[in-house]
Amino acid sequence: MSLQTYVLENDEWVARTISADELMRGDGTSQRKAGRQSLSKPPICGVLSRTIVESPVVRWVLPVQLRSARYNDVALISDHCVQICELGRDRQLHDVIRKTDFGSRIRNAVVMGSPQYSRKASESAEDDTTRIKVEDGGAVPDETGTTLPGFRDVNSRLPPQVLILVLERGDLVFLFLQQGTARSWVFFTSTHKVPGQRLVCPGFHLAIDPSSEFLAVGCSENLFIIYQLHTMEELRSQYFPARAFEPVKLFIARPVKGILHKIDFLHPTHGNGYEVILLIIMVQPEASRLAVYEWDSRLDVAEILMQEKPGFRLDRAYRMPLMIVPLKVRNAFLIITERITATCSDILSGPPEFFEFELVNRDETELHHGTREPLWTAWTRPIRHPPYHDRKDVIYLAREDGLINFLECGDESEIETSVSMGSVDCNIDTAFTSLFHPFGDVLVTGGDSGPGAVWNVEARQSPQRIGSIPNWSPTVDFAVTNGLTRGAVEDHGETSSLTSNVTSRTSSGNTVPLRPDKVFACSGRGITGAITEFRYGLQARIGSDLTYASNIRQCWAVSDPSGIAEDGLFLLLALPNGSAVLHLSHDLSEVSEKEHDAVPYDLSSTTLAAQDANGKVVQVTTNYITIAASDGYSQNLVSDIIGDYAAIVADAAVGGNMIALAVYSGPSYKIVLLSISGLEITLQRVFDAEGEVTCLEIDQVANEGVILAGLKRGRDPTLAIYPAGLGLQVSATPILLDLRPNEWTVGSGATDAVDNDTFGALTSIVHLGTRFGKVVLVGGTRDGDVLTIHIDQLQPVTHKVYRDRFSLSPTRVCSGSVAGDPNSILVCSDAELAIMTSYITAYEGDHFEQIYRVWPTDGDRPSMSSPPINSVAQLHERLPGHGESTLVLIAGPRIMVTELQRHPKPVPRYFPVHGTPVKILYSQRLEALVTVVSKDGLPSLHFFDPETGHDLSRPLERKKPQDSAYEYYKVDHITGLGNAETRAIALTTWTYRAGGIHGDWIVLAMRKGDHQGLLLIISAETENVPTQNDVSRRIRFWTKFDRKIRDGPIWSVATDEHGVFLCVGNHVQYHIIEQGKFRVARIHELPSPASWMQVVNGRLHVLTIKHSLVILDYTCDPPPEDGQMVRLHTDDTCRNSLHSIEVGRPSSAVTMLSDPMCGVHGLWTPSEGERPVQLVFQAELPASVRRFGRGHTRALWGSFKNRPQYGCLQSGPPGTDILGLTIDGSIQHFSLLNENAWRFLKFVQNLAMVSQTICPHAILDPAADEPDPEPNPNPKSNMQVDGNVLQRCLDSHALEELVSKPQHLERFRKLLEPLDHDKYLYLSFLKESDNDALFELAYKILKYHLSPVL
Predict the structure, then answer these.
(1) Can you tell me the distance from the alpha carbon of 887 to that of 875, in angstroms, rounded to the nearest whole number?
(2) So what's the pLDDT on residue 396?
(3) How far apart are CA 894 and CA 547, in angstroms?
(4) DSSP code of 879?
(5) Cα–Cα distance for residue pair 815/1294, rounded to 1 Å
(6) Are 336 and 322 in contact (CB under 8 A)?
(7) How far apart are the C-alpha atoms of 537 and 53, rounded to whole Å?
(8) Other residues' Cβ atoms within 10 Å of the Cβ of residue 1231
(9) How far is CA 1025 from the centre of its chain?
(10) Global pTM value
(11) How does DSSP assign 15-58, residue by residue?
């Protein structure tokens, strides 16, 4: 008999085998040495976490002029972000700038200063002016308050207002905007530390007095602080951009007794500009008290606050008001409780007297989610001409279910007008404000449930929705589609091939899906509930969406062909068998097609090229060349010009006064060069092309006119450069550049050259210009690549190619000048439209650093999918109400006039579900989103098409009459659903393979009351239906099994091929099917209920709500007599848990679990049984992760580059990424790091955390020693690398500044050495004192780890 035990020797746990005799003797040294076994050790790995989609929840909406009075701006403030938007002439909110580097949650916000909407007498006519609405409908006839060009000396003057924030860690942040480079804006900030280390939630209350001289910062209880500020006039006189901005004069703390419930400043008596009135409501155990502090701003405020005001006792009905609304007349304020609305005026004359009044109230709207009456949540004061407020005040009140009430208060009476404005179709929380617009009030509403909106309010009219503010919170579940089910590309270095065996490994360890996986989430509640698809990129807002009678190949915007200034714009369309001209009015409301006789163009044949320049339009079709000008036009047959009547024109290009034709004549191609003089066309030269001409372009390269042609000669494509000079001395010999991958081909993340690989033939060419002495050309190819070609001007034969892979279908490129950025490239393919920006030079090859997808969106159709774009055209003039980048996008027969936004951001897509979605999964077999939706409290199951958003559901009830086959009946809810007493707990799939039965079912676990459960096994199958309403298929489904669970409530569910695991109460039950009935085969008691379960490598991983991870063996053979599962591993630390996912390789797998306190823990499971799991890393996030997911979510060009390198460990199937969904709607991305990568990235983060450039709001103790940036693996929370901080380092290009000290630079180099796979440091060594290669490697590593995931 022998025993095995574990002992700690030399700081290492080892296994020891001893016999019973040795145990009794106590002397078994030699045997112990022989039986000693080394235990497995946990891996050393870190975790890189970053926010890839920020929370959309807006807490405050504040109108604020942070630039100047010329701009009608508004601040959208969330927990961690400030977004500044401008209300444009089209009454839409346009993004200006975003700030996310606060390093702490934003607790509160107010605006300092008064808006300058009217012209002051001292200002000149060139100063900032807007016009103000007057309540009787008139207006001051000044200029509108939208953006005006040519703002001179913008940084020499302080803007009218300053935004004040209170951070959760206790900092006051003052910020406004300054003009940056290239018409950009940057934040100017000043931070003031709130004194005191033991204050309870400082900034829980925040108020500023009407003169902006005093700021009240209240804690949640016992104390408030009054800050005396410099007046805006003083700050303007002291302001200088290079000087410190210090708005705080002094501060005084005032302790009070009780909980601070409300703090606000009241408006002074009219004409008394020095009066300050502070109102405080304190909640004490016996009663609430209202205290008023009143003082003269010219006196010492410290004397006023020296004694605590006892205040007046409030009646019980007013004890805890929802809101206090200061009014501009009679020192009055509104007090609003759950059931009472009242006014109180002349508060300085004695105890408060409340005069109740009735709001024009209506019943709750369908947006109300609670069981009690809806509450009033927010108020705003619309902007009026200043004299108006001398005698009246107007207020908008908002209720949480969308109801808005308009109040008018006079200086002689209480409430003069109370009018219901109706309800808006969105929930309203604290985000509610009124913006100025010349033609009415503009309301901005937002809440924490569903999208917000922008509303136009005209006199005596209900609010009209004019815009939306995306908000997909709350999010409780999400799913990732699996693109690998539709095929994949296996990436062999530089090669690509289509494969059906998607699980096979490739030489590079990467498998790329044909289409990226999509991420869908359950979002919103009630009628605003929806399934949200997360997308990221540039938004193209559709202003007009037309459908032509046939498909359109290409489109050009041309001038009025008649020469008459006709209102609107003209589009020349290239059709498969002809051409067409459309006329669109400027407001896009009217569209008409021009007759052939009404235009000078050739509409009988397909247009190949067109140009509108210098008052002249040139059109080249397959048969004619047309030149149209205001003084006439000419039209000539191509065959007459070139003298070949059998020739076929395959392609054409127009540039300046030159035309190039690709002509197929007989067995070969020719390139014909023509010149334009007035309305005449002259033949200049004919070049013999060596192969098929696949594309043409004319441009000026190195100040010489050339024809750029793509040729297909045998296996490899060729770029041919023909001279386009008109002189006889110009050589006719072209420069031929063979395009083939070899040792100098870079891009796509390739590390090895593959000699037998080829590029596809060129489909289009764009000349980008000259960069660093090299001519840069960009070409699309037939096999989906985009090639960036660099040609040496001195030796044109010398060239290099950088490859970006976009799709497997042909790609076409066009200049980004159509989008307002000539240094960018637009890429069209069957997959999507993308834009390439930020061209850089690098050791790995000059290339475009950033690639973003372009998403056309329609505000009236939020579920619209993004169609493949085959052509892009630019309009020659701005349309009213549209921005500078107005594009025409062609998708088959569709013509979309869009406004392209300049800043990348989330562009969500919504599928309305008309209820609250609570559970979601993606079924690969059905290719549908399976969703549980609660409608009016009744749970139902739905199947949605992820491409179209259509509901494919066809619920059935199955019955089996005696001695006959099953019969199916259409019902509203399948068996087990449609009961208000039940709610969905878990939703998963079950691939059943046992007893010769194969089943693919859906498992839905329900909870009935607090002590019962219901298990539903659901069958579903696809059926084709006649095409009707764009729905070509349906999914019929019915309940196959239903089992009532009476042992307790169901907490979670998991499945394997043989059975279903249920956590019922504190027990895990393993249910199997025997003879058509469920039987409990195994059971195990847990210390607390399971929040999540999953089967991993034949073991059941159970995540408990209070006791972390438990790993069970349910397949042990022989099974225990009592049917118990065997517990293999547990966590010796109790952790509250929400969800988990397995990451890493099977040999060193780590379970990553989330907790309700915003934490993520990485637990490693030893290979030896009965050893506890060990913590390898720990991370803290801005919000708790509700669900983890995994998928190939990167765009195709990013997927080819997503290979494990630079210390990034593979965390799942090749090419996949780990995502985490939080309750507030943000998405976190996680990647595992080896020790070398963790040390380098953590070193950079540690330096950045003490840098005022990267973390400007970090307040450092000047007396403290300089922090040591060297990474320390203990505690395990240090193993987290904050990718958000690294992203700021990358965006600001700050590495050189961070390691400016010699000791930091040397350590920086040492940490880079293990990651230098491309020998950058060798180049740096060759160039002494030159660290360019060193920093290029560092930035390349940061770009790799921070590359886009969506």
Answers:
(1) 6
(2) 95
(3) 4
(4) P
(5) 31
(6) yes
(7) 11
(8) 24
(9) 37
(10) 0.90
(11) EEEEEHHHHHHT--HHHHHHH-EEPP-----EEEEEEEE-----
Q: How far apart are CA 130 and CA 142, in angstroms?
A: 6
Q: Which residues of the chain have pLDDT under 70?
A: 1-37, 117-154, 242, 361, 389, 483-513, 561-566, 726-731, 742-757, 844, 878, 880-884, 1027-1029, 1259-1264, 1323-1330
213 exposed, middle or buried (CB, 10 Å; 0-12, 13-18, 19+)? buried
Give the span between the Cα atoms of 1019 and 1022, in whole angstroms. Answer: 11
Structure tokens at 997: 């039965």
C-alpha distances in Å from residue 706, one per residue of 657, 675, 709, 794, 1340: 12, 13, 10, 16, 36
Q: What is the 3-state secondary structure (H, E, C) of 984-1039?
A: EEEEEEEEEEECCEEEEEEEEEEEECCCEEEEEEEEEEEEEEEEECCEEEEEEEEE
Strand partners, 4: 17
Q: Where are the beta strands (DSSP E) in 733-798?
A: 735-738, 746-747, 762-771, 774-781, 785-792
**Two structure tokens written together for 201:** 């939630």
The pLDDT score that the predictor gives to residue 275 is: 93
Among candidates 377, 372, 369, which has minimal Cα distance to 524?
369
Structure tokens at 1020: 């579903």
Give the whole-angstrom CA distance, residue 141 versus residue 163: 29
**CA pair distance 1211, 1195, nearest whole angstrom:** 19
Predicted local confidence at residue 805, as pLDDT: 87
Distances (CA, A) of 719 to 92, 611, 693, 789, 1291: 46, 23, 10, 10, 36
Please tell me the distance from the alpha carbon of residue 621 to that of residue 625, in angstroms, as a whole number: 6
1038, 968 Cβ separation under 8 angstroms: yes
The secondary structure element, H or E, covering residue 236 is: helix 232-238
State how far the Cα of 231 lies from the Cα of 538, in Å rounded to an integer. Answer: 41
**What does residue 337 show for φ and ψ, rounded to 5 degrees?**
-110, -170
Please report, as a single letter, which amino acid is at residue 1092. Answer: W
My answer on whether omega of the bond before 141 falls inside 30° of 0, hence cis, is no
Tokens, residue 512: 């790329």
Which tokens belong to 1348?
Answer: 């886009």
CA-wise closest residue to 110 among 207, 187, 209 = 207
* H/E run at residue 541: strand 536-547
H or E stretch covering 1340 = helix 1332-1345
How far apart CA 354 and CA 376 sit, in angstroms, is: 18
* Tokens 């000259």 sit on residue: 770
- Amino acid symbol at 1237: A
User: By C-alpha distance, which of 574, 567, 635 is closest to 599?
Assistant: 635
Cis peptide, bond prior to residue 1118, ω within 30 of zero: yes
DSSP letter at 304 equals: H
User: Residue 1275, preceding bond cis, omega within 30 degrees?
Assistant: yes
Identify the bridge partners of residue 999 per DSSP, sorted by sequence position: 992
**Could you tell me the two tokens for 1329?**
């004192």
- The percent of the chain in helix, strand and coil, each rounded to the nearest 5, is 10, 50, 45
**Neighbouring-strand partners of residue 987:** 1004
CA pair distance 487, 497, nearest whole angstrom: 10
User: What are the backbone dihedrals phi and psi of residue 1249, each rounded to the nearest 5 degrees, phi first?
Assistant: -65, -20
Instruction: Report residue 325: phi and psi, to 5°.
Output: -115, 105
Residue of 605, 666, 600 lying closest to 635 (CA atoms): 600
The reported pLDDT for the residue numbered 503 is 35
Asked whether 1068 and 1088 are in contact (CB, 8 A), the reply is no
| Amino acid sitting at position 957 | E
Amino acid 1323: pLDDT: 65
Following DSSP, what letter does each residue of 662-699 receive, concatenated? Answer: EEEETTEEEEEEEEEETTEEEEEEEEEESSEEEEEEEE
d(CA 775, CA 793): 7
CA distances from 206 to 107, 215, 262, 399 (A): 9, 7, 9, 22
* Residue with tokens 């208000």, as numbered in its chain: 980
Token reading at 565: 């200034």
